Amino acid sequence: MKLVDKVSKDRRLSWNRKGGLMLTAFLERVGLELTVVRLRELTRLPNADLANQLQRFIKAGVLTRRTDLEAFPAEDYFLLPQEMRVRARTTLQLADDAELRELTEERGLDIEAAFGQFSTRQPYKVALGKALRDVRNDLTWSLTDVATVAPVQVSVATLSNYECGVTLPTPIMVAQLARLYGVNAVDLIVHAACHSKTDKRVQQLKIADPTFRAVLTHLYAAHDQQ
Questions:
Q1: Which of 30, 168, 196, 214 could form a disulfide linkage to 190, CB 3.0–4.6 angstroms apart?
Q2: pTM of this prediction exceeds 0.85
């Protein structure tokens, strides 16, 4: 194969954007097994590019693969499990740019649905506030209840500002509230980072680990708040 044969005819399709198209296709259909044929229809990628991206995400532990050996010829099925959505969306955020959005639209994919049904990209502290409010509401606690039993002194007004995205709680406060609510603090900040506007400063660092990306997103937001 000539080297030129490996170059996509569409100059916009960098390797990251090809991966972005793959993840967009999967994240729109979380919980469904997709065949190579169906993925090729969705992403409109050549077989070689599609195979490279599938191998990449399987190696990263994002996708699972099943081979139907009873069929002839044997057919492979690929699945993005529910528990891998956060990691997949974090990976997708690394490639999030105007051209990727243009490419997904051309292929009939919905990148906003892939990001989690958020039609507008909200600030991180707003997303974190919503996450805190959701877990509190799940417990049917009021803000007064939280202020009463919190391990540190915190007012109802302060808690309200956290949940409304007016002010950003410190990582220590997030950890204390998470423990009080019986949830994982890491899950809260990763969820917020994946459901908020991508911080270009974090994006430029090209960090794939979702937890570290979320921590950096939180720290940059705290710096901006000062």
A1: 214
A2: no
